[in-house]
Design a protein that fits this description.
Distance between the termini: 52 Å
Number of helices: 8
Bound molecules: 6-O-phosphono-alpha-D-fructofuranose
Largest sheet: 8 strands, mixed
Family: Belongs to the FBPase class 1 family.
Strand order of the largest sheet: 4-3-5-6-7-8-9-10
CATH architecture of the largest domain: 2-Layer Sandwich
EC number: 3.1.3.11
Pfam families: FBPase, FBPase_C
Radius of gyration: 19 Å
Helix content: 25-40%
Keywords: Carbohydrate metabolism, Cytoplasm, Hydrolase, Magnesium, Metal-binding
Oligomer: single chain
Subcellular location: Cytoplasm
């Protein structure tokens, strides 16, 4: 008999300190939004929802129509929940907070940080895209920002949905990584794998090699090490250019994904709070590693909600070798 995502969360009640009714109700808001997003994506090419929205977001990037839709879906499905103190989105400059209808103080316990539709520039060429989310607990002391700008090891839960041939949810609450496949016939995410483990070593490296000339030399040396069989395996290059898709393959097949510092993006391109942190949490829970130019991603003290970071993530063997090369 099938197990749905909601049933899985409830069954984990004992082992997840957060899996109270409030927490699983919150997760239901995320899964509802991702079902709405996937339905919109599936029909986008037919009903003209593809293409630019005509505005740029806080990142200075051209917003796609589906970026705006995905953001609104998450804000709508989560904004109605009393347990939400704030929402932090790649698409919004500031955290979104809510004045509760009864005018009382915002007593929300959780902050959800998300990239509503990562890789959306690939949609018009029909390439997989994804939603990435991270759940933080609101600290009683200090203002909201004090609860948002915390290192990734304080995350309560994290996950992503990759919209590909299947719509797959991958999630951790610190008690292993579990994956679920959306069954459109019943409109539920159905458990497909529990306690996923990233292979100890893979045969793929994934990076935008067009930037290699401007990387710090150590990254070029590292790629030469992989290419020359220095880790005892023959590697192939796979780069989709959609982070969730490249990460999902790395989680399942092993290997390494790298976005090092470049001349244009000396602090890295990918965002710490809603890309690197959630994926690093999943990678470590699956036995992998994630670093940002030498330091553990989950230990980085954020300074801003849209802060960028170099981001390298993957199997233990490849990542330990990278850490060694970076340590010089
Ligand atoms: P580049 C997509 O725009 C994105 O934010 C990630 O999904 C992806 O990993 C990265 O940028 C690709 O960047 O510079 O290789 O095109």
């Amino acid at each position: 008999m099938i197990t749905t995502f909601q049933q899985h969360i409830q069954a984990q009640q004992q082992s997840i300190s957060e899996a109270s009714g409030t927490f699983s109700y919150l997760l239901a808001g995320i899964t509802l939004a991702t079902k709405m997003i996937q339905a919109k994506i599936r029909l986008a090419a037919l009903d003209g929802a593809i293409g630019a929205y005509g505005q740029t977001n806080v990142q200075g990037e051209q917003q796609q129509k589906l970026d705006v839709y995905a953001n609104e879906a998450l804000l709508h499905c989560l904004g109605l929940k009393d347990s939400v103190a704030a929402l932090v989105s790649e698409e919004d400059e500031e955290p979104v907070t809510f004045d509760r209808a009864q005018g009382g103080p915002n007593t929300g316990k959780y902050i959800i940080v998300f990239d509503p539709l990562d890789g959306s520039s690939n949609i018009d060429v029909n390439v997989n895209v994804g939603t990435i989310f991270s759940i933080l607990r609101r600290r009683t002391e200090g203002d909201l920002n004090a609860s948002i700008l915390r290192p990734g090891h304080t995350q309560v839960a994290a996950g992503y949905v990759v919209y590909g041939p299947s719509t797959i949810l991958v999630y951790t609450a610190g008690n292993g990584v579990h994956s679920f496949i959306l069954d459109p016939a019943i409109g539920a995410f159905v458990l497909s794998e529990e306690r996923m483990m990233m292979p100890e070593q893979g045969t793929y490296y994934s990076t935008n090699e067009a930037n290699a000339a401007t990387w710090p030399q150590a990254y070029r040396d590292y790629l030469d090490l992989l290419r020359s069989g220095g880790l005892g395996k023959e590697y192939s290059s796979r780069y989709i250019g959609s982070l969730v898709a490249d990460f999902h393959r790395t989680l399942l097949k092993g290997g390494v994904f790298l976005y090092p510092p470049t001349l244009k993006q000396s602090k890295g391109k990918l965002r710490l709070l809603y890309e690197a942190n959630p994926l690093a949490f999943i990678a470590e829970q699956a036995g992998g590693m994630a670093i940002g130019h030498g330091n553990r991603i989950l230990d980085i003290e954020p300074e801003g909600i849209h802060q960028r970071t170099p981001f390298m993530v993957g199997s233990r063997r490849e990542m330990e070798a990278l850490a060694e090369v970076l340590a010089g």
